[in-house]
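tokens incoming
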């Protein structure tokens, strides 16, 4: 029988030193923090304590944050919570006092569909007079408009107006 003995001896030379340096550089490169891309978008969510609604605003990344890190973002948006962070998409949120300011009531005024903004004190302020004539909408909608159709958020408002057109 032939017995082969494997040595425990560690052999090092210039090649192994260079290989070790390359491995360390690769490890450092892979562990660097993710940077914000110029194509990144930020979703800014605000939740209002008085009405409980959440609004979302989508913005392109400000130029001064391109190639910055999550820490830089925290500094720029102090008071916000970072819900998601990647090089192309960031979601931040915070709680706000008061109402969202996107409460509307839609009514019939002199045969036209008119949008009023509901203010925090409960009063109505005319927001927009549409070109939509109430004579062409359904009887159910006409009845609902007498009392006013309440909607929350611009998306819901736009959907209601599209339904009337």
């Amino acid at each position: 029988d032939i017995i082969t003995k494997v040595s425990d001896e560690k052999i090092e030379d210039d090649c192994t030193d260079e290989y070790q340096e390359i491995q360390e550089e690769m490890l450092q490169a892979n562990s660097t923090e993710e940077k914000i891309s110029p194509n990144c978008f930020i979703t800014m969510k605000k939740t209002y304590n008085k009405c409980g609604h959440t609004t979302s605003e989508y913005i392109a990344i400000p130029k001064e944050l391109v190639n910055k890190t999550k820490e830089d973002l925290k500094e720029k948006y102090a008071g916000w919570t970072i819900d998601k962070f990647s090089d192309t998409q960031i979601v931040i949120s915070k709680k706000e006092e008061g109402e969202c300011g996107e409460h509307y009531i839609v009514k019939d005024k002199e045969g036209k569909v008119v949008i009023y903004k509901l203010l925090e004190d409960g009063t109505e302020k005319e927001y927009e007079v549409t070109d939509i004539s109430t004579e062409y909408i359904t009887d159910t909608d006409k009845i609902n408009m007498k009392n006013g159709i309440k909607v929350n958020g611009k998306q819901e408002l736009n959907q209601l107006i599209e339904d009337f057109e």
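note: Residues 9 and 16 are 14 Å apart (CA to CA).
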